[in-house]
Amino acid sequence: MRAWRVGPSGDPGNPGSPGVRSQLVVGEIPKPDPGPGEVLVRVHAAGVTTAELGWHPTTHTKAGATRVSAVPGHEFSGVVAAVGPGTTGVAAGQPVYGMNDWFDDGATADYCITRPEWIAPKPPRLTHAEAASVPIGALTAWQGLFDRAQLRAGERVLVHGGSGAVGIYAVLFARRHGARVVATASARNEEFLLRLGCERVIDYKTGRFEESVKGIDVVFDTVGGKTLERSWGVLAPNGRLVTIASDGEGTRDERTKKAFFIVEPRREQLVVIADLIEAREIQPVVDAVAPFTQAGAAYAGEIKERLGRGKVVVKVTC
Questions:
Q1: Strand pairing class (235-243; 216-221)
Q2: Three-state SS for 195?
């Protein structure tokens, strides 16, 4: 089967080389077979998370050894091609969307392996490209706001990176839950975020959010760095901060360690999210759809025809 993989050790794109951007190469690899409790998905579209190429599960095995030639893209939409022995809850031919394990080969390929508890029926009204843009962003926002921050109606939320693939869902879910939302974003996305329900949008290029917002109950950070550091000062006395920025994973700062989390694939949440999509309470935002042949360019950020918000998706099937 066709697959895009991280360049092997020794290539200019070696993911283990500090300061060097990982590059992808395309080729043929064996089609996987589903084992007990596993599902084989014929991938129709896969979401692109560019930062993934430098993440620990991409560059290392679960045992900690160096990993090479990983297939990226751990969110997808497609059709169940086969199920392994003892697998229940899904059947061949069923359209599904969801995620798979970060240490497994991803979905920027014709097929990928996942598990029934990590996928759900694809929202019928969405195309596969639209559905593939949903799982990581929506699950991350849901888990950050509700599982981690325990968001309550009437609270004030600050979303950093409000027009991004995760930030959009954080805005939508917080507003739907009855929260008041402020977001940071570029000026070109101000009107878009106001339409989503933000009370205010702060241009991160020209304004300093900490000078105009205080008493925030929940900060949802997708940016990290100085933005994260400056966010502690805007929290209310009982305020909570959650962050998904990759620089939070290896931090020594105890506050950031507690605030940082990595999304987990959960079928029950994907089902709820699909119901909200079908009810038109939320709508995915696809930044651009790249053909399979351009997956390398998509991960390198070289797709030119983009909205500048939402998720880039690779269309795997013709």
A1: parallel
A2: helix
| Token pair for 45 | 């579209």
Q: Answer yes or no: are the C-beta atoms of 302 and 295 closer than 8 Å.
A: no
Q: Which CATH architecture group holds 136-259? A: 3-Layer(aba) Sandwich (3.40)
- DSSP letter, residue 60: B
Cβ-proximal residues to 287 (8 Å cutoff; 6+ apart), any chain:
165, 306, 307, 308, 309, 310, 311, 312, 313
Domain with CATH 3.90.180.10 in the chain: 2-134+284-315
Cα–Cα nearest to 140, from 278, 47, 62: 47
Query: What would the pLDDT profile of 8-23 be if each residue is shown by its tens digit?
Result: 543 434 444 433 345 8
Q: What is the end-to-end Cα distance of the chain in Å, rounded?
A: 14
With the CA atoms of 208, 212, 215 and 219 taken in that order, what torsion angle do they form, in degrees rounded to the nearest 10?
-30
pLDDT at 250 over 80: no
What angle, 0 to 180 degrees and rounded to 10, lies between the N-to-C axes of helices 267-278 and 135-142?
Answer: 100
Superfamily (CATH) of domain 2-134+284-315: Medium-chain alcohol dehydrogenases, catalytic domain (3.90.180.10)
According to the model, what pLDDT value does residue 17 have? Answer: 40
Domain with CATH 3.40.50.720 in the chain: 136-259
